[in-house]
Design goal:
single chain, 101 residues, alpha+beta, three-stranded antiparallel β-sheet, 3 strands, 46% helix, globular
Length: 101
């Protein structure tokens, strides 16, 4: 019984992680040059808040310029509107996500 519950839980967590990873990567990496809506930023912020720094690096790679101890990472978001996102880490987890530009 415990193994069945653990198996179901593992599948649910894996599915959720994959969905969030896909949403986050799709919103930031794909469609460069395309205009993005405020709703897309809101979904992205909800998806990443609380995630570990390593998970963000795994999904998006390291930012173009970052110090080893940098608490804020920056990524392009909407090239046409010249917007970027700032992801601020607190104790190794995403504490805030802001839209710049």
């Amino acid at each position: 019984m415990a193994i069945a519950v653990l198996s179901a839980l593992t599948r649910a967590v894996s599915w959720t992680t994959g969905m969030v990873d896909g949403l986050f990567e799709g919103l930031v990496k794909s469609g460069e040059g395309r205009e993005r809506s405020p709703a897309q930023f809101v979904r992205l912020r909800r998806a990443v808040l609380g995630r570990e720094q390593g998970a963000i690096a795994g999904m998006l790679g390291w930012p173009a310029v970052v110090c080893a101890d940098a608490s804020t990472w920056y990524y392009r978001f909407d090239d046409r509107a010249q917007q970027a996102i700032a992801i601020q880490f607190v104790k190794g987890r995403v504490g805030a996500v802001e839209l710049i530009g």
